[in-house]
Amino acid sequence: MIKKILLGLSIAAIAGVAIAQQPGIKRTPLQKLDFPAGYNTVTAIAEVPAGGAAGRHTHPGMETGYVLEGELELAIDGKPPMKIKAGESYQIPEGAVHDAKAGDKPFKVLGVYIVKAGEPLAKPAP
C-alpha cells in the first residue's frame, strides 16, 4: 500500500514539472517503471487545447508517442516542423529542444519517456 502511494506521489511530482511548462495543458500520468537500469520509463497522456503549445523543452532521455486525437505540429530544433495526425507516432531524441503545438483543434497524445533516473522529466528551453 505504501509503495503504491509513493509511486503515485512520484508520478504526480514528475507530471508537476512538465505541467509547469505551459498553463492549460493537461497531463495524466499513467505509470512509472524503474527500468532499464539507471532510467525511469514514464507513460502519460498529454492534452493540449486548441491554439495551445507544450512550450520549448527538453527531456533527459528519449520520448516516443502516439497521437490519440487531433493533429499537432512537432518542432524539433534543427529539423523542419512535422504535422502528426491521430493514428501516427513520433520520436524525439534525448536532449532535443522541441515543442508541440495545436492548431485550431486540441490534440491528445500517449507519451512514453525513457529518462535518466533522478532527473526531472522535462526542463524548459529558451
Automatic annotation (TrEMBL):
Residues 45-113 form the Cupin type-2 domain. CDD domains: cupin_BLL4011-like (cd02235). It comes from Bradyrhizobium ottawaense. Residues 1-20 form the signal peptide. Keywords: Signal. This is Cupin domain-containing protein. Pfam families: Cupin_2. The keyword Acyltransferase does not apply. It comes from the Bacteria.
